[in-house]
Design a protein that fits this description.
The chain is α/β, with parallel strands linked by helices and 267 residues long. The chain has one domain: 3-Layer(aba) Sandwich (Rossmann fold). It has a seven-stranded parallel β-sheet, with helices on both faces. A two-stranded parallel ribbon has the order 5-8. Helix 7 packs across helix 8. The relative contact order is 0.14. It binds nicotinamide-adenine-dinucleotide. The site of nicotinamide-adenine-dinucleotide (NAD) has 29 residues, from helix 1. The site of nicotinamide-adenine-dinucleotide has 29 residues, from helix 1.
Length: 267
């Protein structure tokens, strides 16, 4: 989708961090942006900021664990803006703790919020995109969905691996139908995500993919997402080290895993 001016974008989890930065970057590129978030005030504030660019932007409260909320959002967007072109599924919550201490309820909450939210979004928005024969879906996964480097937030990692798999399969389906798919796999980004972490059992250390990996500003990631939509690219790896790690794992899976185990033991 080379031209973003005049397009209509829906961004869930758009009230903060990566979603906020992408919403603002899309508006700066000329798109009308609908900012959806569980936190209504944040959604409104970001939409207000996005509208300074001169496009039509509005915020709405939306809980991605609620299928009806997506349908209501779609109806409101169609009424106010007439179409949907870009759907960014971006919400993620983290359940942390030792594997044997995280209760099933936290697994269910993580999978529902991080993964099934995209299934809900697809049920609502894909029929529209398929009918118009154009559009772009952006799913925010994580580096932790690409390979294992930590065991202390397993529901999060598993949900994000699911987002990667879902996005890849979705690209097979949508690409021939002229709809783009982008899967965003960030390393560390300076957002409010840490405030969303729930711990089961004693607190555990949250590890980055590799020691010393830099923390990016969300604006950098927002710009990467907009570029990927424009260039119709599938994978956004925010840090070049992630590419190198994936090559290492593909080349020598046993050695790669042994190295990750050693890194955890030595830390
Ligand atoms: N920050 C990082 O280091 C990092 C790394 C990899 C992946 N990610 C992913 O990036 C995405 C965005 O996270 P972020 O880091 O910008 O975090 P953030 O906490 O700054 O933003 C997340 C937003 O989602 C909203 N939200 C939470 N639950 C919701 C729900 N049920 N329905 C609707 N909105 C809800 C929150 O209110 C918040 O505004 C997430 O999917 C996260 O897993 C972040």
């Amino acid at each position: 989708m080379e031209e973003l001016a005049g397009k209509v974008a829906f961004v869930s989890g758009g009230g903060s961090g990566i979603g906020r930065a992408t919403a603002l970057a899309l508006a700066a590129a000329g798109a009308h942006v609908v900012v959806a978030d569980l936190d209504r005030d944040r959604a409104m504030a970001v939409a207000d900021e996005a509208s300074w660019q001169g496009t039509e932007c509005f915020g709405m409260e939306l809980d991605v664990t609620d299928q009806k909320a997506f349908d209501v959002a779609r109806d409101v967007i169609l009424r106010r803006l007439g179409r949907v072109d870009i759907v960014m599924n971006n919400v993620g919550v983290v359940a942390a703790g030792l594997p044997e201490r995280i209760p099933l309820s936290e697994w269910e909450r993580s999978l529902s919020t991080n993964l099934l939210s995209i299934v809900r979004s697809n049920a609502t928005f894909l029929p529209l995109l398929l009918e118009q024969g154009s559009g772009h879906v952006v799913n925010t996964a994580s580096a932790t969905g690409l390979f294992a480097y930590a065991y202390e937030r397993m529901p999060y990692s598993v949900s994000k691996a699911g987002v990667v798999a879902l996005s890849e399969a979705l690209a097979l389906y949508l690409h021939p139908r002229r709809i783009g798919v982008t899967c965003v796999c960030p390393g560390p980004v300076a957002t409010n995500l840490r405030q969303q972490v729930t711990f089961s059992g004693p607190p555990v250390r949250m590890r980055p993919p590799v020691k010393g990996m830099s923390e990016l500003e969300p604006e950098v990631v927002g710009a990467m997402v907009v570029d990927a939509i424009r260039e119709n690219r599938f994978l956004v790896l925010t840090h070049p080290e992630l590419h190198d790690l994936l090559v290492q794992r593909a080349t020598d899976p046993e050695g790669f895993l042994a190295e990750r185990i050693r890194a955890i033991e030595e830390a």
